[in-house]
Amino acid sequence: MQIIPVIDVLKGQVVLAQGGxxxxxxxxxxxxxQATTPAEVIRDLLAFHxxxxxxxxxxxxxxxxxxxKAFYQSLAQQFPSLQIWLDAGxxxxxxxxxxxxxxxxxxxxxxxxxxxxxxxxxxxNWILSLDFRNGQLLGDSRWLADRxxxxxQVIAMDLDAVxxxxxxxxERLEQLKLAHPGQQWIASGxxxxxxxxxxxxxxxxxxxxxxxxxxxxxxTAADLTALSGY
Length: 230
Hints:
The chain has eight helices and ten strands. The protein starts with a strand and ends with a helix. The longest helix has 11 residues, at 38-48. It has helices spanning 38-48, 59-62, 69-78, 93-96, 170-179, 194-202, 212-215, 221-227; strands at 2-10, 13-15, 53-58, 83-87, 105-110, 126-133, 136-137, 153-158, 184-188, 207-210. Helix content is 26%, strand content 23%. It is α/β, with parallel strands linked by helices. Strand 9 (184-188), helix 6 (194-202) and strand 10 form a beta-alpha-beta unit. An eight-stranded parallel beta barrel has the order 1-3-4-5-6-8-9-10.
């Protein structure tokens, strides 16, 4: 199992997502770092564990502001061996055809902002995030029915559970896996302990996005090393 830390960036600072309105997210507080700038937070995360991939949600872009590509070019250059999954609030399939800011960045497109378009079927180096709130898919409902336009890797994003220890949405993940067994599923939201991660691994979930369990010290470096063996 691959553990992928999540960094939520708002106005150039790392904040801690807690469900609810993004504009009210507080600055990050963490047992792993005293920093709130993305580069410093990444350095401290990599000092804690040898993560291969980091997920960044640019909350300003998700809310409709232009993406600061130069910022992410610089960030990617500082960590050339790290793969960055960047959710920049993509709203059109043709945006996926545009090169990311750097070679080690991959686009993440969320159902919240991207309509289900057949043009996406021609592309494979992106990641789809199925964004759920209050049990319902955000955005275009056709995403759930039209697997033909999905990439290989798909995130099941439970926005209500982000930043909260409510537990992963096991039932939804099971349903999605049964309906779409050919996808590589990535879980996000509600992780409480390493037992949750072990259960997800047993379900065949290959990767998990998380933040709070790391920053609150719930998961140790030894836990992450052990989980990599699943």
